[in-house]
Amino acid sequence: MTMHDRSLSRRSVLKAGAGLVIGAYVAARTPAFAQNQPAPQQVNIAPNTFLIIKPDSTVTVLCKHIEMGQGPLTGMATLVAEELDADWAQMRAEHAPSNPVLYKNLLFGLQGTGGSSAIANSYDQMRKVGAAAREMLVAAAAESWDVPAGEITVESGIMRHRSGKQGRFGEFADKAMQMAVPSDPKLKDPSEFKLIGKEGAVKRLDSVEKSNGSAVFTLDINEPEMLTVLVARSPRFGGKVASFDASAARKVPGVVDVKQVPTGVAVYATGFWPAKQGRDKLKISWDDSAAETRSTADILGEFRELSTKAGRVVKAKGDFDAAAADGGQLVEAEFVFPYLAHAPMEPLNSFIHWQGETASARYGCQFPTPDHGVIAEVLGIGVDKIKLQTILAGGSFGRRAQQSAQVARELAEVAKAFGPGRPIKLVWTREDDMRGGFYRPFGLHRMRGVVKDGKIAAWSDTIVGQSIMKGSAFEAMMKDGLDPTLVEGSNELPYEIANFKCEAHQVEIGVPVLWWRSVGHTHTGYAVEAFVDQLLEAAGQDPVEGRLAMMDKHPRHAGVLRAVAEKADWKGAKLETGRARGVAVVESFNTFVAQIVEMSVGDSGPKVHKVWVAVDCGVAVNPDIIRAQMEGGVGFALGHILYAEQPIDAGRPVAGNFDTYRSLRIDEMPEIDVTIVQSTEKPTGVGEPGVPPLGPAVANAMARLGLGRPRQLPIVPGAAA
Amino acid sequence: MAAFTLSINGQAHAVDVDPDTPLLWAIRDGAGLTGTKYGCGVAQCGACTVHIDGQSTRSCSLPVSAVGDRKITTIEGLSSKEGRAVQAAWAAIDVPQCGYCQSGQVMSATALLEQNKAPTDRDVDLAMNGNICRCATYVRIRAAIHQAAKSLEG
Ligand code: FES
Ligand code: FES
Question: How many other β-carbons are positioned within 10 Å of the β-carbon of residue A57?
């Protein structure tokens, strides 16, 4: 059979994969999934299933979201196991291959992971998969035992009938495959859940392999005849190769070839070290005629000037100017946010084996659908001739979610320049990663507020920043040319303020930018929560009570704020011990997080001792993973808010490694206390929402220590100076 | 290129590489053991941590020609009781997120426990602060080290 023959019966497709014995394809038949399917010939057919039950009764869930630490392998398996009534010990999970029909993200319409959407978009879908498989297994057992299906119970992976008959899934998997796939399988009532939301019921599926070195990341791929490739790219953004001399590079033992590619000059070698030595010996002259040549200081100057001018109005209510002219205290603040690298622990590696007519690629691929299309375009072969498999990624924080498939394109170009035949692993060094652009955008918020009669009477926020979506596959999500990620979180506040204005200047700069863990909320969360705290301070109000008083229409914000204040035993911002506390609450990706930090500032700089977190993410599917994401989100945010910055010097990114791009280390990690607020709302994500409140909570605590709220981040600059 | 014989996890591995090649790449590309990771190449992150004669060492910053016949242990060969206790605690507490830094974390934590049966928080800070975790799993790393130490008592 061929892998792209759609005429195959479902059963034969399921049988085609060795060990595939039962498939539940229910979700693919739901209307949401059936819309906008690509033409069949454009689809690379994978076993059309989310579920594999083997004769040994192991249940493997195919996860359409990439595992980059945030836990979807475990999350998807939890949802399936719950409805299947499986025993957790029999559950496994793997990444699904690239297939835009079967595995599309129901929120984006293409296969991809982002926006903390994995659980939100798969909650119903994967439960239905589990429930359908359960019904099919029960039907098979009923037929074998000649008893009514309704008399069979399933518990912890064992099917039983009161006659004493019992069996495990593996025994019935073959027969179950012949049963009709239920179109609308019955889901459990949440009161019947045994795994979802249950403490200790589920352990991460990938902890052991990630503790003994056996987990395979892209860097670990090794195939016979494989070449390792490093690309020398322009030191300035937008620079192009004018000419190059590779004679010295070619003399390095182990260097096999050197080719020009659109992004620079590629060195092909038998391993990393010869590739690196070869690259170091290249002599390249760059054409900077179209390159970015500004420095951070120039950009800041331009932003600052723009911020004093009226921008396009994103949202307005009441009349700010009238309120400002009507007495009261005018409070102003300017907040400046640096470019930030994601610096995932594993830099951006990728692998492809192009054999002329066909190709096979695998790497930590976060957006398979656009990547797949771009590889096909560059190699000039059909998407159906290319297998693309996502594997474990060593972190991402947004870096692998490439809006224009940059890595896939470079990978395919590098393969194309060499020619078909040999497997190719394209490796990025840490310096390539840090200096490779696609940063959290540089930005500035000019805030103005009016405090009158002990209340916040008016609010104005003028934002200057770059668009992430413009010119990318996501441009269609822009509204009237405005990138929503520039203003999300600033255009809608959880606070009732009578006179409100949010304006934006969207600026074009030649430094490529990208979503970075919590996207626009990385700066809007800070600007809004630091400024509201400043206004409340001016109004003589308590940071917690003052916020709650304006939050009538936002019960979930208020809920997490109350929960965190209670857990931290909040009694005001200033403590008697030389420490102070700061609070912030931010909603991002429909998840609500409030944090309270307790900190001091000593000779060695700011020290955050403890962070309390309260999170409302709807139904909490895996409580321990939620806690882990809150812990990680706090640590990630704290390291950047304190230390991180990618300065630009005449178009060149300066920081190249962790010596100049300082990362949080274990001795700087605060104690963390996480409260998960009970909720029956639909589940939402937790990968990103732990990040935004941390920065402003730190800023607010610093203000209460008499140091003011930092106006320009990072708080401790100079690592890269 | 030059031939070196490395003693890795009790086995002799012949590698033919440039003498300046960092041990990390001799282990990964030469001996084919990929559990040891590259994260920075400049002794900043600890992802490449191995034990050389029992000492935590950043393999990215040690030329293969300087190793001699010293005994190298990588994550694949970790078999001391401390190493097993650390790995068991790592899994029990679900320390890893992306997991990419964790080989190095486990190697550093094991070396700590091999030298100090009951480390304090300050000991943990000193032993572990050369290991960056971008996912910031530090709270659990600390908890798992204490749990492993406890499991080794008596
Ligand atoms: S790779 Fe050796 S310390 Fe980072
Ligand atoms: S677990 Fe991801 S870097 Fe440590």
Answer: 19
In chain A, the percentage of residues whose pLDDT exceeds 70 is 93
Examine the domain organization and report whether B145 and B112 are in the same domain. yes
Is any atom of ligand 2 closer than 6 Å to the C-beta of B40? no
Are A99 and A47 in the same domain? yes
A666 and A526, same domain (yes or no)? yes
CA A495 to chain centre: 27
Together in a domain, B26 and B87: no
pLDDT band of A1, cuts 50, 70, 90: very low
CA A579 to CA A670: how far, in whole Å?
14
Question: What is the helix, strand, coil percentage profile of chain A, to 5?
Answer: 30, 25, 45
Ligand nearest to the CA of A393: 2
CA-based nearest distance A672→chain B, Å: 8
**Average of per-residue pLDDT across A150-170:** 96
For chain B positions 10-69, those within 8 Å of chain A (CB to CB) are 17-18, 21-22, 25, 28-30, 32, 34-42, 44-45, 47
Q: Are residues B14 and B72 in the same domain?
A: yes
ipTM score over 0.90, yes or no: yes
Residues A396 and A463 in one domain: no
Size of interface A-B (CB pairs under 8 A): 185
Number of domains chain A is built from = 3
Q: Given B87, B91, B100, which is nearest A346 (Cβ)?
A: B100
DSSP state of B27: I
**Which atom of ligand 2 approaches the CA of B98 most closely?**
2
Count up the domains in chain B and report the number.
2
In a domain, A280, yes or no: yes
Range(s) of the domain holding residue A496: 296-340+438-704
**Which domain does B41 fall in, by range?**
2-77
CATH classification of the domain holding B98 = 1.10.150.120
Any CB–CB contact under 8 A between B141 and chain A?
yes
CB A159 within 8 A of CB A141: yes
User: Which of A176-190, A373-387, A458-472, A480-494 has the lowest average pLDDT?
Assistant: A176-190
User: What digits encode the pLDDT tens for the residues A227-259?
Assistant: 999 999 999 999 999 999 999 999 999 999 999
A36 band by pLDDT with thresholds 50, 70 and 90: very low
Span B109-126, pLDDT tens digits: 999 999 999 999 999 999
Look up residue A482 and give its two tokens: 């405005």
* Tens-digit pLDDT profile for residues A524-542: 999 999 999 999 999 999 9
CA atoms within 13 A on the CB side of A354: 22
